[in-house]
Design goal:
elongated
């Protein structure tokens, strides 16, 4: 529910001072919750270490006492929940209403990043996530003509950064002959995506919207190659367009001389 309110607030914060104040307060609550989780993780680690020190007696009044810590955490959780309840009431007072998360604000849309090179510091602590995706990509037992891996998550969780780190992983670099990353955004045009695929393969940009010509050129360019296609920031859920894109990819990989077309598609979708 709170995420839905945030979606509404993002379309109004440029024109409403009250919404800006509300968002600032909400960020403060989120920070308190994050600090609380960090403290909880630290205490768990601390208690594991303490259990190994059987020869030492822990004072009841030390900060590491489990009972006192549990009471403190319960109080902090209650405070965060109370703050969120208050923020929800204030949201109604300033005219914010829950919206479906798939709805995008048409105004004040920020340009999304379309360059597949980012600061990898955002992936610290997510090595396991990278490994899971890489392992899925390296599997050889796919029984479909077009294996698709879908990664779903809310906006701001680092899916884009993660996808680009996967692209530069040594195993992925060595396994795939071509690695293509495309920011789909909500401007979903099959011809645009095919054109960007050609550009990523080193082709000079061609000014054509002829789908058949684009498919033919990609077929020639990728013949006999292993290809990884990452489609990032997908918002459009038009089934007909996606079916058209799928058919194009199957045509690109047709008659490659292998039992299965060596293309892996990774789709990063909002939750």
């Amino acid at each position: 529910m709170m995420q839905a309110l945030i979606s509404d607030s993002q379309s109004k914060q440029l024109t409403s001072k009250a919404v800006q104040v509300w968002l600032t307060k909400l960020r403060s609550i989120a920070l308190d919750a994050e600090i609380m989780l960090d403290d909880f993780g630290y205490e768990l680690l601390h208690q594991k270490i303490e259990t190994r020190k059987r020869d030492k007696v822990r004072s009841f009044f030390t900060s590491s006492n489990p009972l006192l810590f549990s009471l403190e955490m319960a109080s902090r959780i209650k405070n965060v929940n109370s703050s969120l309840d208050e923020a929800y009431k204030e949201a109604n007072q300033i005219g914010l209403h829950p919206v479906e998360l798939i709805i995008r604000a048409p105004d004040h849309k920020e340009d999304r990043m379309t360059d597949p090179f980012v600061d990898e510091s955002g992936v610290v602590g997510r090595v396991d996530d990278v490994s899971r995706v890489v392992n899925l990509l390296m599997r050889s037992d796919y029984k479909k003509d077009l294996p698709v891996i879908s990664i779903v998550g809310m906006a701001g969780q680092g899916k884009t950064t993660l996808s680009q780190v996967v692209l530069k992983d040594d195993h992925v670099v060595n396994y795939f002959d071509e690695r293509i990353w495309i920011c789909v955004s909500d401007d979903f045009k099959v011809e645009r995506l095919l054109n960007e695929m050609l550009n990523s393969c080193g082709e000079i940009k061609i000014e054509t919207t002829n789908r058949e010509e684009l498919v033919r050129r990609l077929h020639e360019k990728l013949k006999g190659k292993r290809c990884l296609l990452v489609l990032d920031d997908i918002w459009n859920e038009n089934g007909e367009k996606w079916d058209c894109m799928r058919k194009c990819l199957l045509e690109i990989g047709a008659s490659q001389g292998t039992k299965y077309w060596q293309l892996r598609v990774v789709m990063w979708l909002p939750q």
